[in-house]
Every structure is written in structure tokens, then in C-alpha cells.
Specification:
Blueprint (H helix, E strand, L loop, with lengths): L1 E5 L3 H12 L3 E6 L15 E2 L12 H10 L5 E3 L5 H12 L3 H29 L10 E5 L2 H15 L5 E5 H7 L10 E5 L3 E2 L2 H13 L7 E4 L4 E5 L4 E5 L9 E4 L5 H7 L7 E11 L11 E3 L5 E7 L2 E12 L12 H10 L12 E9 L6 E4 L6 E5 L5 H16 L15
Parallel strand pairs: 1-2, 1-12, 2-9, 4-16, 5-14, 12-19
Antiparallel strand pairs: 3-8, 5-7, 6-7, 10-11, 13-16, 13-17, 14-15, 15-16, 18-19
Length: 422
């Protein structure tokens, strides 16, 4: 079959790989000049399967109240009167109970583990180099309150097959001596969590696909896709400014832009764009910097050391801002990144460097925080692969494998019964 994939981010390129592996003729359409240019460009780079917990919890009402009233909270609402947000929020709160939390937790953790296995298989099969390391991620606590919560979280994910070790301060410092100047009281080590440069992975996999001797995947850049309904909505046509797109099947993997595309087809997609901020800073003193990625449980900043063409850098991310289509940022949006990283690793980074890169992107969140991976309910040749939210790197290859199974008409290798539905 000829399969057209819309979007060349993590999800789109991973989908293209599995579709190519199934024997299809694959073309990927991307509106930007290269892959991984938007949501996949500068994310946290942590493959944190053990952290794949649903956002709607039995205490979510308190989190929402803080998001509405506390300007310093990691999660904030800045577009209060957005009808799309309130529709999304009503469904979100419908899951904020113990029964649904347990159901969604089991499903999301299981899927994340499945996806990490697929990611590692993809790396082994293709030889793509993205600095992937599976030697655990460190989640550090600077207070007894977060330490208590970390113990409970370790016990919870342990029930679902994840090995998470609870560590004292001394044990944390043995793993990460550069935390010695900090006030860290302890933490946890998620043994099978990993890290790697997701942008490098996406772009290298795209190159790998284009260089295959048999059925090389075609990537068409700088093309924006529009949809038009025909025959009173019974069928459709997809066009770029220069041509009509022809295919036997279309996989939509447009991240936060999926909702805009879906509206052209008269389809309601339960996704809301949630903005996050990242900053990438050159390392000034390697002995003072962390050697592995992790998260501070108190501030919720994530950090990950990466190799860049100019040397070692640190990717630092935080924030979950419900701001509609606003994807802008100011210098003030990165104050928390520097403040909280310096509290952990003082003096490690060169904050005066001209090579510091600021970034903001929108993560496509569903109300349940599980992705949408399904065939369209009206158009039998459209398939949706979207809504992976803030862990698209973790879920990329597993989502690609499942969508390829759906396109081929096979039983998916992972049950979709509890996934977010259209």
C-alpha cells in the first residue's frame, strides 16, 4: 500500500519506520524544513517509562486550583476563558477518581514499558546513534515531604513491574557526587529508565529511512497539508499548495497541530496543547555537573546531559502552561530553570554563554493522558497517532508499531481498549 504520514516529529518518523518495515510504500509530509522541528526539537530527552503516570488523579482538583491561583506553580492556566480548555477540562476531571486513576495507571505504565522495548529494538535494528543510555534516571528530593511521596510512587510503580530503588542522601551522592553542595535528602533511582537525544534520534532515523535500497521512504519538506470534505462529507481530499496527496492510507501524527487538521475533516480530537519550556546551556565545569539525567521532585525541573557539536550541554525543562495556541516565551519563563538547577549543581553551567538556546513547545495532551491510536470512525483510510503528551520520546516507537498493525489490519500487539478514544 501507499501510506502517507503527516508530520515528521518523533511519532511521525517512528510510524514511518514501522510502516516501511511492514512493506508499505511510505511518504512523510512535513511543513518545516527538517524533522523534529517543533515538539520533538528540544524536549527533556528522558525515556522515563516509570514516570508514565496519568495526570488526572483523585487530588487533581487541588492541582487545578493551584494552577489557577499560583503564578509560581509548574502547572498554570493563563487562558482562563478558552472554551476548548473547559471542554477538555470537564473530561479530565471525569477521570479524577480512584477507580479511573488505577485503570489509567496500569494502562499507561504497561504501554510505556512496551514502548521502551520497541525503542530499544529500533535502535538495535537500525544502528541509529542518539547517545541512548539505559543506566537509570535519578529522581532527587530536597524535602521530607517529597521524599515521602517518592517512596509511595516507588511502591506504586513497583506493583507494575518497575524496579525503583529508594535512596538515602549518602546513596544519592554515591551515584551523583556533584549533588554534594545541595540540600538533597534522598531520592529514587528508576533502574530501567533511560536517556538519549530525541532530536538526534528522529533526524537520524529519517536519514536511515531515506537511504534504504529497498523502498526508501520519501520525505517531503516545506509542505503544509489542507483537507477538504467532498460528497457532503462522505469523503475527503488532502492537498498541499502544489499537489493533491494520493494514498491508500493516511496516518496523522501532527502533534499539537492535530486538532487544527481534524477540524477541517469535521473530526473532534480531545487534545489540548500544553506549553513547556526548555533551555540548553553549555557545561562550564564537568566535575560539577550531573552525569545522568533526572528530575527534582520539589521543583519538577528535568535535566539531561547531552553531547552537542560544541561540547557537553545540559538540557533543562519544566512547565505545563495551558495557554491555548500561544507558544511564545520571555526571559522570565526560564528563571525557574536556572534557580532550581543551581540549587542542585551550583557552578556547573556557563550561564553567560552566547550559545544558550531557549525553547518553548506545546505537548499534545489528552484528558486521560493516554494517546489516541486508532482508525477514524468515519473515514476508514485515516489513522490517528497523536496525544502522547509530555512523553512522546518514551512512547514514540511503541505507538509507531501499533499504528502499523492497524494499517495492516492486524490485531495490535498492545491492547487499545483503555486508550483515549475520539
Amino acid at each position: 500500500m501507499k501510506v502517507v504520514v503527516l508530520g515528521a516529529g518523533l511519532i511521525g518518523v517512528a510510524s514511518a519506520y514501522y510502516l516501511w518495515r511492514d512493506g508499505h510504500d511510505v511518504e512523510v509530509i512535513e511543513q518545516h524544513a527538517e524533522p523534529a522541528t517543533v515538539t520533538s526539537y528540544a524536549n527533556a530527552c528522558l525515556v522515563s517509562a516509570s514516570r508514565a503516570l496519568p495526570w488526572p488523579t483523585p487530588t487533581a482538583h487541588k492541582t487545578i486550583w493551584r494552577a489557577l491561583t499560583d503564578s509560581s506553580a509548574p502547572m498554570r492556566v493563563t487562558k482562563f476563558f478558552d472554551p476548548a480548555l473547559w471542554r477538555w477540562g470537564r473530561e479530565f476531571l471525569s477521570y479524577a477518581n480512584q477507580r479511573d486513576y488505577e485503570r489509567l495507571t496500569k494502562e499507561k505504565l504497561s504501554f510505556a514499558k512496551f514502548c521502551q522495548d520497541e525503542l530499544e529494538d529500533t535502535l538495535a535494528q537500525t544502528g541509529v546513534d542518539c547517545g541512548y543510555k539505559r543506566d537509570g534516571l535519578l529522581y532527587v528530593c530536597r524535602s521530607e515531604t517529597t521524599m515521602t511521596a517518592a517512596r509511595a510512587r516507588a511502591a506504586l510503580v513497583g506493583e507494575h513491574g518497575f524496579e525503583v530503588r529508594v535512596l538515602s542522601r549518602d546513596e544519592v551522592l554515591t551515584l551523583e557526587p556533584s549533588l554534594a553542595p545541595s540540600t538533597v535528602v534522598g531520592g529514587t533511582l528508576a533502574v530501567t529508565d533511560a536517556q538519549g537525544d530525541s532530536r538526534a534520534f528522529t533526524r537520524a532515523l529519517a536519514v536511515w529511512l531515506t537511504t534504504q535500497v529497498e523502498r526508501p521512504v520519501r520525505f517531503s519538506y516545506g509542505e503544509t497539508v489542507n483537507a477538504k470534505l467532498l460528497q457532503r462529507g462522505r469523503t475527503f481530499q488532502l492537498n498541499t499548495p502544489s499537489r493533491e496527496l494520493k494514498g491508500d492510507a493516511f496516518v496523522v501524527a501532527l502533534g499539537p497541530q492535530t486538532q487544527h487538521f481534524a477540524r477541517m475533516l469535521g473530526v473532534q480530537i480531545p487534545i489540548y496543547p500544553v506549553k513547556g519550556f526548555s533551555i540548553t546551556v553549555p557545561v562550564k565545569e564537568a566535575s560539577l555537573a550531573p552525569q545522568r539525567g533526572g528530575i527534582c521532585e520539589d521543583s519538577l525541573i528535568a535535566y539531561c546531559p547531552l553531547q552537542s557539536p560544541s561540547g557537553l550541554v545540559m538540557r533543562i525543562t519544566t512547565g505545563a502552561i495551558f495557554s491555548g495556541q500561544d507558544n511564545g516565551f520571555t526571559d522570565a519563563d526560564f528563571g525557574a530553570h536556572r534557580k532550581h538547577f543551581e540549587a542542585l549543581f551550583p557552578g556547573a553551567l556557563d550561564w553567560s554563554s552566547s550559545e544558550i538556546e531557549h525553547w518553548a513547545c506545546q505537548r499534545p495532551m489528552t484528558p486521560s493522558s493516554l494517546p489516541i491510536i486508532q482508525r477514524d470512525t468515519r473515514f476508514d483510510n485515516i489513522y490517528w497517532n497523536c496525544g502522547q503528551g509530555h512523553i512522546g520520546w518514551t512512547m514514540s516507537c511503541g505507538s509507531g508499531r501499533v499504528i502499523a498493525h492497524l494499517v495492516a489490519g492486524r490485531q495490535p500487539s498492545f491492547s487499545l481498549d483503555n486508550m483515549q478514544q475520539l
